[in-house]
Design a protein that fits this description.
Structural class: alpha/beta
Number of domains: 2
Oligomer: single chain
Helix content: 25-40%
Strand order of the largest sheet: 3-2-1-4-6-5
Amino acid sequence: MNAPIAPELLARVSNQHLDALEEETIFILREVAATFERPTLLFSGGKDSLVMLRCAEKAFGAGRLPFPLLMIDTGHNFSEVTDFRDLRAKELGAELIVRSVEDSMARGTVRLAHPGESRNVHQSVTLLEAIDEFRFDALIGGARRDEEKARAKERVFSHRDSFGQWQPKAQRPELWTLFNTRLQPGEHFRVFPISNWTELDVWQYIEREQIALPSLYYTHQRAVVERKDLLVPVTPLTPALADEQVQLRDVRFRTVGDITCTCPVASLAASAAEIVIETLNADVSERGATRMDDNTSEASMEKRKKDGYF
């Protein structure tokens, strides 16, 4: 008869893949800090950027981040998330740079087709303006390859030309974790240290590290309407239509973003451990289940990325 596995050994075995992912992310973050002159970490206050921030703390030490944090604010973000963003940056003593789509609208570089149009896609313009303002040469982002097909095509070190555009047919090879980081004037990189993580990995890591998150990620009651197989939150920006019935439901957000395009899912999960179990049983992708603006073709997202989107 086989001897029972000690609980501490079992826990260690179950965490080995998280150790490997964390080690890879720390290596990439240190590579960015050593290679580039003016990097920045894109920080929204969401779960993926908070996981990256924890890895950055381990890479460089608490309060010693070698780059500022940058957020592009649409002006339509959930206050729970932006308040948490500000709190976390203050706790770390990190420099937080916020640039707003509304400022781009005031300059005339962003023009909405109509007042109710989502500002989400227009973040690309404000982001490129921030890159030009601060002369950033590397932007560290929290995108993961499992999110959708266009993101799955992208390298960890994703080259952008002098117009801020991504050229998927001209990507540089990344064999044996050797990265080509050469830049011409005006060019920059988008770097994705958690590319190889999945949504499940993120939640397992959050549980293991006891990472605090905005309350929206856990179950709470919210007024919603059912629309096109999504639970649309009822807000001043996303009101119920005349023929829709408002319901008070127990929900949580799998991802957070602009209010006008982000939907919750039905859930009673009140802890990271419970969300791990839910994620194991999920049969719809994170963005497919929650984003009103992502119910489009792969080609549409790829075009947005070519235009400078995150």
